[in-house]
Each structure stands twice: as C-alpha cells, then as structure tokens.
Amino acid sequence: MRRWLDDLPKYADDSSWWPKGTKRCRPEVFLIWLGLPLTLLAYFSVGAVLCLALGLNQTNMNDYFAFGVWIVVDLAVIALGAGAFFTSFLNYIVGKTELKPIVNAAVLIGFICYVGAILMLGIDIGQPIRGWFGFWHANVHSMLTEVMFCITTYAIVLTIELLPSVLDNKRISRVPEFGTFSHNLHTIMIVFAAAGTFLSFFHQGSLGGMFGVLYARPFAARGGLGIWPWTFFLFIMSAIAVGPSFTTMVVMITEKISGRKLTKHSVKMLMGKISGWLLVVYMVFKSADTLWWAYIKLPSAGLTLDNMYHAPYGFWLLWVEIGLCGWLPALMLVQEKVRASYGWMFVAMLLACIGITLNRFVFTIQSLALPVLPFEKFYAYLPSWPEWGIATLVLGFGLLVFMLAYRYLPIFPQEPELND
Amino acid sequence: MFPFAYEWIWDIGHIVFFGLFYAILSVVFGALTLTILKTMLDLWDGHIHEPEH
After folding, report:
1. How far apart are CA A388 and CA A49, in angstroms?
2. Which of A50, A225, A276, A413 has the maximum number of C-beta atoms within 10 A of its C-beta?
C-alpha cells in the first residue's frame, strides 16, 4: 500500500508549510487520506439535512429518550477532551514543565472535542437559529445553563490557546505581526489556562450534577454537598483522570500511523502516571458512591439494585465500567513497569477511556430506560442511521482538523530531534 | 443575560451566575485585548519576535 502511494505522480509541493525539521507524506497521498474524514462528514451532512429539514422525528428519540446517542457522545468527548484544561493547568499553573511537549496536542484535541460537541448539539436543539435563546433567556437554576455558558466560553479559550500554534506555522510566522502576536500570546498563556481551568471545572461538574439532581430517576439521583450532588464531583474527577490518557492515546496512534516519534516516552509515561493516580482516586470515590447508592439510597426509596438492571442493560455494564474499565486500568497505570511498555500503557489508557464513555452512556440512557411510573415499561434505545450520521461529526471533524494540524502546525516540538 | 431582558430578576442566582460569567469573559477578552495592544506597541518600537517552535 505504502509503495503504491509513493508511486503516485507528483503534482504539487507544500513542504514549505510543514513544521521546521519534519517530513510529511506527499500532497497527493495526503489528499487520499483526507477522503476518510470527508466521507464521514458527508454522512453527517445527510443526517443533518434530514433532521433540520424534516425534524427530530428522523431520530429514535421519543418521550422516553429525550437524550440519545448525541448526548452520550457529547458527554464522552467533553470528558475525553479534559486533557486540554488539565494538562494546561499542570504545565502553566502548577509548573509541571515536563508536560510542555504534549500541551499543544492536548489543546488541539480539546479544541476538536469541544467544537465538535457544540456543532453536534446545534443539530440536537432542533432549531439552531434559536440557539442564542439559551443565552438570552438564561434559566440560572438549570445545571445545563451553566454547562452551555461554560462550554461555549471554554471553546473560545481553547481557540485562543490554539492560536499560537497556527501563527507559528513556518510560512505564517514569516509575517512579523503574527510572529510578535504569537510571542506575546505565549507570555500571557497562564491567564487563559487559569480561565480554562475555572470554566472546565464547573461545566464538567455541572454535567454530572445534572444527573444527580434528577430526583425522579433513581438510577441517577444522588445526595450531595450543598447544591452539588456527588455526581458533580465524580464527573470532574473522572474527566481529569481520563483526559491525559486520551491525549496520550491519540499521540500514540498518530505515531503508529505516521511512523514518526512525536514525544519522548518519558512524557507519555508521566501522562500515564498522572492519569493512573487520578483514576485510583476516582475509583475509590466511585466505588464508595456505588455501594452507598446500592445499599442505602435505593432501599430508602423502596428499590433494590436488581430493579436497576434489565437486559440488554444488565449487571455486566456495572462490572465492565467499575472493574474491567475502572479499577483494572487504574491499577495498571500506577505501575511503572506497565507505563514503560508502549503496548500495555496503550491498553490501560484505552480501557480507561472506554470506562468513562460507558459511565456517560449508563447515566444518559439507562437512567431514562428504567420505568418510573406504574404504567411505564422498560425500553431499550437504538439510534437511527441519521442519528449515527450526526454523531460521526465529531470523528470526521476531529480527523480533518487533526490531520491538517499535524501536517502544517508545530504541534509536537520534540519531533525534529526524535527523528534526526 | 442582560438586566434589560424582560425575565431578568435581581436575585442572588442571577447576580452570582452572571457576575462570574461576565468576570471570566472580562478576563479572557481583557487579556486578549492587552496582547493585541502590546503587539502593536512592540511593532511600533521595532521589537519583532521570532515565533517559538
């Protein structure tokens, strides 16, 4: 395959735009690669046109499932994209400068996750042209209002944080105004990192808090501290635990596909260590919360744990989320031997990311699937094909932006020295 | 969003929520404006910086 791609005729040369000291595939080959995200975006476009023109009846959402696959994907990518704010926080505010070689990648991945989620939610709200209503007529008692305000503001912060990487492009940086602006942005980046940390902390928490205050949904409702249910804190903890894992995983996948080393393994190991210990802390609190919910909260409402799990959403979900994709990757990542192995560290990080995605899935879908009134039944939910199309937006958009950024922007400062 | 919107109430919820929101917006856009102004001053003085790689 690689030889066939190399034998393609040469038409153009964009090497003057590549980051200093790096090599990239030829433009013709790159165009072929772009076919993948463009195909996904075409699938998204068909779904989006159907939903916007004909309405949300094109989806399998109904009176039971007001939230569907879009919210699951939204919550998952917001959690996985938390590597941006947490890595920036550690690098700029805590002073963990060893993470500097991976901060740009973390910010880029965060930008993709947040902007992708916002674009997808534009379809979810049914009438995107009325999207500004939520800002203008804000309901300050709703957790979702805080989420909406913080996510959009944080997307602006991420765009500003990403700007120096764009301005540092080899050709763009030749313009003195851009080079000077980029330098000045670098010097004040701590302010944006602090603003991002504040915004992320609250919207990650409010996403969890939204489930915790659903008093009529026994699967999700929890007690808490003041106005914040325990899920508020659990969502923050889980996001900062898996965010660094997801960032590192994306870097590792890019290394394998491009055949180039992008960051030193010591940087990845540090990300794995941070992720591992945070995952241990999260799992302690998550396990305690689950036990309290199963043995105190549910019985106090006249329910049992058995009432909460029905096929296809059986007990296996609980064991996979907390055991296989929770405690197992946590215990793997805290061990140096595992982190030293490229393959095992990747497996542990993948399990952690699956675990958090599963957590967002059960809170969104299982909470709604369980009957809460005597005349209701248990229902399972399966998205329609236009719904899947819109959910692929994040993947298509993400691949497109990441491929362009990898090709043209100095995202990985260690790449030239590692590939000499 | 603004006190002149018809559903606005001067209660603690609106004051805290929007107080924090406008504070963070001020910090973000204030920092961005300062950076742009500093860049203009640098260029005016002939202090041109090479970008970091």
Report:
1. 13
2. A276
**What's residue A3's pLDDT?**
62
Instruction: Judge contact between A247 and A105, C-beta under 8 A.
Output: yes
Q: How close A359 comes to chain B (CA, Å)?
A: 28
Sign of CA dihedral A216, A217, A223, A228: negative
> pLDDT by residue (tens digit) across A255-313?
999 999 999 999 999 999 999 999 999 999 999 999 999 999 999 999 999 999 998 99
* CA-angle at A152, arms to A149 and A153, nearest 5°: 80
Which residue's structure tokens are 């809460």? A372
**CB spacing of A136 vs B1 below 8 angstroms:** yes
The CATH fold of domain A31-370+385-407? Formate dehydrogenase/DMSO reductase fold (1.20.1630)
Domain ranges of chain A: 31-370+385-407
Instruction: ipTM value, please give it.
Output: 0.91
Q: pTM for this one? A: 0.94
Residues 143-182 (A) with a CB less than 8 A from some CB of B? 145-146, 149, 153, 156-157, 160, 164, 167-168, 173, 176-182
Contacts of A326 (CB under 8 A, 6+ apart): A279, A283, A286, A352, A355
Please give the biggest Cα pair distance in chain A.
Answer: 72
Tokens of A275: 């992720």
CB of A208 closer than 8 Å to CB of A236: yes
Q: Which residues of B touch A178 (CB under 8 A)?
A: 51
| Cα gap A86→A185, rounded to integer Å | 19
Residues of A in contact with B53 (CB under 8 A): 19-20, 168, 410, 413
DSSP state letters, A32-72: HHHHHHHHHHHHHHHHHHHHHHH-GGGSS--SS-SS-HHHH
A186-199 average pLDDT score: 95
Reported as type and span, the H/E element at residue A299 is helix A298-300
Q: Within 10 Å of residue B29's Cβ, how many Cβ atoms?
A: 12
Answer yes or no: is pLDDT of A369 > 70.
yes
Provide the residue type at B40 as one letter.
M
CB within 8 Å: B50 and A179 = yes
What the block records as the tokens of B32 is: 């961005």
| Surface of A (317-356) touching B: CB under 8 A | none
Identify which of B7, B21, B35 has the shortest CB distance to residue A188.
Answer: B35
